[in-house]
Amino acid sequence: MTVKIKNIIQEDIKSSLKAGDKNKLDALRLMLAAIKQREIKERETAGPDASLDDAQIIVELDKMLKQRRESIVQYKSGAREDLALKEQQEIDIIKEYLPKQLSATEITKLINEAIMATAASSIKDMGKVMAYLKPKIQGRTDIAKVSIEVKAKLAG
After folding, report:
1. CB of 104 closer than 8 Å to CB of 90
2. Helices 22-46 and 4-19, interaxial angle, to 10°?
3. Counted domains in the chain
4. What is the span of the domain harbouring residue 28?
5. Which pLDDT band holds residue 3 (cuts at 50, 70, 90)?
């Protein structure tokens, strides 16, 4: 298993330290901590040599994005623009380590493909469609937004 993303993050931590880029350094350290925490959980079930592959790291980074998006909403509703800005900066840094983001056209194409592949015909089939889509879109777009689009297509 390769752990390229983790290695890149570790190298970028060193670079950020040398450059004195505190914001990026803080975000990178948070990312690495989340990865290491997940690796510890994996070792409990898969054994002492377990490490995360890039796909698993992408899932962790995607969770971090979701948490930050939710925090931004909370901070803005609490009139804490300073904290919302910090979260947005972290989002921008995390996105650098994720695969290329999908365009709206690509997302629509994948949704249509998923509906066809799962033979979904109503909102009851949403779980099947999302299960089909998730590995293809993880880390490449906001899954919550895709879910809304899928729901709209299946309802209409």
Report:
1. no
2. 150
3. 2
4. 4-95
5. low
> Amino acid identity, residue 87?
E
Q: What is the phi/psi pair of residue 102, to 5°?
A: -80, 145
pLDDT digits (tens, 9 = 90+) for 78-132: 999 999 999 999 999 999 998 888 899 999 999 999 999 999 888 999 999 999 9
Residues 84 and 45 in one domain: yes
Do 37 and 63 touch, CB atoms closer than 8 A?
no
What is the chain's alpha carbon radius of gyration, rounded to the nearest angstrom? 18
* Residue 104: C-alpha distances to residues 48, 70, 107, 149 (Å): 41, 22, 5, 11
In a shared domain, residues 19 and 76: yes
CATH number at residue 111: 1.10.10.410
Tokens of 107: 């997302």
Cβ atoms of 138 and 61 within 8 Å: the answer is: no
